[in-house]
From TrEMBL:
The lineage of its organism: Eukaryota, Metazoa, Chordata, Craniata, Vertebrata. Pfam families: PH. GO terms for cellular component: cytoplasm; nucleus. This is Switch-associated protein 70. It comes from Liparis tanakae (Tanaka's snailfish). Residues 61-117 form the PH domain. Transmembrane segments: none annotated.
């Protein structure tokens, strides 16, 4: 699918950085990927998904996201919802486009989880 990791290329890239530390900021990483210096031969869709995940984790503080089944409060039927977990809340939406927010569960020290069989 793509080319292998080249430690020499990365060492060369780090020398060109303006900072002296051994890490990249999120913006430096995105710029690095955008230069295609390391991504030649990689599938563009795979790269896009990777950048999106890094952005969501580092910038939007998303810990985990995906579809789950949720039991309704009034009608008690099960509906598939798109859930997004952040350090302080679990939000759920009609689908993964995040347009129609259905609810928000605050996650704090008083929150408890009930597991059903």
């Amino acid at each position: 699918m793509g080319s292998g990791w080249s430690e020499e290329k990365f060492a060369d890239y780090k020398l060109k950085l303006k900072t002296n530390n051994n890490c990249l900021t999120a913006w430096e990483f995105i710029e690095l990927v955008g230069t295609r210096y390391f991504s030649k031969g990689m599938n563009q869709q795979t790269l896009s998904m990777g950048i999106t995940e890094v952005f969501q984790e580092l910038i939007l503080d998303v810990l985990k996201q995906g579809y789950l089944m949720k039991k309704g409060h009034k009608r008690k039927n099960w509906t598939e919802r798109w859930f997004v977990l952040r350090p302080d809340a679990l939000s759920y939406y009609a689908c993964e486009d995040l347009v129609e927010k259905k609810g928000n569960i605050i996650v704090d020290r008083t929150c408890c989880v009930e597991v059903c069989c």
